[in-house]
C-alpha cells in the first residue's frame, strides 16, 4: 500500500511538471485551431492528410490580405503564461505559395498573444507579438520556428517583442502605459500565428501554407522540481527498506 502511495506521489509530481505543456499535430482534429476562411467561398483552411510531419497538417489556401492560425478555446494554449518562469512557443511551417499578383514575395509570420479582456483605445485587444519566422515559398520543405520567453514576469518588452493596444498618430502600435509584458501574458485569451503584423498593411496575396506541431513548452517553477525529487526520494527509500526486509 505504501509503495502505491509513493508511486502516486511521484506521478503527481511528474504531472505537475508536464501538465502545462501542449502540442497539436492535428492527428486528433484541430483542437481549437482555426485558419483564415474566405468571404467569397473560394479557398479556405482545413486539415490536410497529405502534407503533415508524420501526421496530418492544417492548411490554408486563399487569396487575402493575410492569413492567421489562431486558438481561443483550448485551455492548453489560452491561459496564464506567467504561471511558468519561462516558456517556448514552436510551430512547423510549409510555405508552398506566397505571391503578390504573380510575383513571389515573403511575409513575416508573427506570434501574437492577445488579451481581449483589457482592451482600450478603441482597439479590439491588447497584445504582445514577435516575428517568429518568414513565409518564403522558395525554401523547400518544412521549417521549424520558435521563440523562448526567458522571463514571463518582465515588465518591459523583451528584445524583439512588440506591443499593441494603443497607436501613435502614424499608426505605429505600442503597449498602453497601464499594461506590462507580464500583465498581457497573465491573461492570454487568444494565441495567433499571423501575417498581420501590427502597424503594417499588405495587398491581396495568394497563400498556400500548412502548419503542424504547434507547441507550448513551459519551464516548471523550482517548486515543481522539488516535488519531483521528493517523489523520487520517497520511492527510493521505500524500495531500499523493502529490499533490506527481504
TrEMBL record:
Keywords: Signal. Pfam families: PEP-CTERM. Coiled coil: none annotated. It comes from the Bacteria. The lineage of its organism: Bacteria, Pseudomonadati, Pseudomonadota, Betaproteobacteria, Burkholderiales. It comes from Pseudoduganella albidiflava. Residues 218-243 form the Ice-binding protein C-terminal domain. Residues 1-21 form the signal peptide. InterPro entries: Ice-binding_C. This is PEP-CTERM sorting domain-containing protein. The keyword Signal applies.
Amino acid at each position: 500500500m505504501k509503495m502505491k502511495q509513493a508511486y502516486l506521489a511521484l506521478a503527481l509530481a511528474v504531472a505537475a511538471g508536464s501538465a502545462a505543456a501542449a502540442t497539436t499535430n492535428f492527428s486528433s482534429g484541430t483542437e481549437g485551431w482555426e485558419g483564415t476562411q474566405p468571404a467569397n467561398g473560394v479557398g479556405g483552411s482545413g486539415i490536410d492528410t497529405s502534407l503533415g510531419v508524420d501526421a496530418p497538417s492544417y492548411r490554408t489556401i486563399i487569396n487575402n490580405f493575410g492569413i492567421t492560425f489562431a486558438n481561443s478555446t483550448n485551455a492548453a494554449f489560452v491561459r496564464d503564461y506567467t504561471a511558468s518562469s519561462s516558456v517556448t512557443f514552436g510551430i512547423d511551417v510549409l510555405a508552398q505559395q506566397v505571391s503578390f499578383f504573380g510575383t513571389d514575395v515573403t511575409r513575416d509570420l508573427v506570434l501574437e498573444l492577445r488579451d481581449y479582456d483589457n482592451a482600450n483605445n478603441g482597439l479590439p485587444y491588447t497584445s504582445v507579438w514577435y516575428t517568429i519566422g518568414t513565409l518564403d515559398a522558395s525554401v523547400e520543405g518544412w521549417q521549424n520556428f520558435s521563440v523562448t520567453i526567458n522571463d514571463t514576469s518582465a515588465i518591459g518588452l523583451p528584445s524583439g517583442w512588440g506591443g499593441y493596444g494603443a497607436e501613435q498618430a502614424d499608426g505605429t502600435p505600442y503597449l498602453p502605459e497601464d499594461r506590462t509584458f507580464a500583465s498581457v501574458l497573465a491573461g492570454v485569451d487568444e494565441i495567433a500565428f499571423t501575417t498581420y503584423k501590427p502597424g503594417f498593411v499588405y495587398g491581396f496575396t495568394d497563400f498556400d501554407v500548412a502548419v503542424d506541431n504547434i507547441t507550448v513548452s513551459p519551464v516548471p517553477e523550482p517548486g515543481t522540481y522539488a516535488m519531483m525529487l521528493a517523489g523520487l526520494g520517497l520511492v527510493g527509500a521505500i524500495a531500499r527498506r523493502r529490499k533490506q526486509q527481504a
